[in-house]
Design a protein that fits this description.
It is built from 1 helix and 8 strands, in the order ββββββββα. By secondary structure, it is of the alpha+beta class. The chain has a 4-stranded antiparallel sheet with strand order 1-8-3-6. A 4-stranded antiparallel sheet has the order 2-7-4-5, with no helix packed on it. The protein is elongated and about 75 Å long. The relative contact order is 0.27.
């Protein structure tokens, strides 16, 4: 996915609501000439008991980690030159949760089948 961001204008690149899963957002920022972009990134997290805004410098390669339990989570990019944002990976934390849920489902299936397996073995 790519997003165009104009010089000096805040551009929303991430907008999540009621997200409880930890995520990592990785993206590159390149100017029209292909060079690493500069500027700033503003991360705004709204939680049940307040909100925080963090500003970090925009670089060619960026990785921003989101913790869990946000009512809203937004990332704005304000570049010093016209820039294109290229997302490399998003929602890495969700992949881990899918693996855990898959393992739990497998264990539940094994536990449900265990009495039948034992009965079969005893019948031999």
């Amino acid at each position: 996915m790519e997003i165009s961001a104009l010089k000096g204008e805040p551009t929303k690149v991430v907008n999540l609501w009621a997200s409880t899963v930890p995520d990592t957002f990785r993206f590159s920022a390149r100017t029209i000439t292909g060079e690493s972009a500069t500027g700033r990134i503003e991360v705004i997290q709204r939680r049940l008991f307040g909100s925080t805004a963090t500003e970090i410098p925009l670089q060619g390669q960026n990785s921003i980690r989101k913790s869990s339990a946000c009512l809203s989570y937004r990332i704005f990019v304000t570049p010093d030159e016209d820039t294109t944002i290229y997302f490399e990976t998003t929602h890495v934390g969700r992949r881990s949760i899918v693996w855990v849920l898959g393992i739990l489902a497998g264990l539940a299936a094994a536990a449900a089948l265990a009495p039948y397996v034992i009965q079969f073995i005893n019948a031999l």
